């Protein structure tokens, strides 16, 4: 979750006051061209899905202060391929990080495919559909808008019955419900009409909007807390801290009995998840006994928009389903960042909540 331009100058920089805080760690490095090894000035460097980023100086160097945990560090520069590096608190001791950037090269086949499949009236035909499946259909989505929709490019394959959407610059999203502006570098959005499934990937950078008054600030604070509670981020942090029950979560495992799916409640959540903590890296791993897991969040009613659209959905709690790859553990950092994210798929309530209900990894309940 990619491409930033010289807009890097507007990125937020973490305050130097964090230097004395044990809850933050410092990342330093240098960005260079892979061929000339020349330093690249004004490259955008940010921790994706956070409010924290900066731009490289004249010598190509950068410094970031980040809350303890894990992140995807994203480096972008116009005309170059996006570089992504997973970082964690342990990288604070590495002061010689060098990021090499490759220039973008488009093959003739790629150009031909894009030219032949691009829809000139794509925004008019599929704009609303894209907004519903990318921004979402929640209450918050009604106050969320993309300010530069003209950057969207739509491609449709009749043979595959598939819609693809790309953007030739970062999408500028304004979420008036949560008080965030998001620069979202959209890698791709794909909707398969044969399976009615949508997949999108990109790199968001959050910026807090300035409230008009105290009332708006209080509204944003409440809405952010509501968006966070019961989310995948909330679940991962609660798992990390062994606070699932205390935070309102319940886990059930889906098993097949005579061809019928049956939910079995786990009495020992952490034993059934094969919870394992590495004291040296402060990373935990989970590898559930069953690949199909139901996640119930009891401390909040589901959005009425969701229950109205899904008649079989429970009305008194939020129900999500997670499918893990067999025998594949995922790692969780203390800030709720988890990897490898491609090793799990989600359905139910979590798949319904999209960009309009995202909060950054550095979000905390006050």
Termini separation: 27 Å
Described by the principal axes of the CA atoms, the overall outline is: globular
| Content-based structural category | alpha+beta
The biggest beta sheet is recorded as: 6 strands, antiparallel
The total count of helices amounts to: 7
Radius of gyration: 21 Å
The total beta strand count reads: 22
Which consecutive residue ranges, at least 5 long each, have pLDDT under 50? 1-20
Instruction: Quote the beta fraction.
Output: 35-45%
- In total, the number of domains comes to 3
Order of H and E elements? EEEEEEEHHEEEEEEHHEEHEEEHEEEEH
Mean pLDDT reading: 90
Helix content: 10-25%
Brief overview:
The N terminus is likely disordered. Helices cover 17% and strands 36% of the residues.
Pick out its properties.
Immunoglobulin-like, six-stranded antiparallel β-sheet, 36% strand, alpha+beta, 7 helices, disordered N terminus, 366 residues, 22 strands
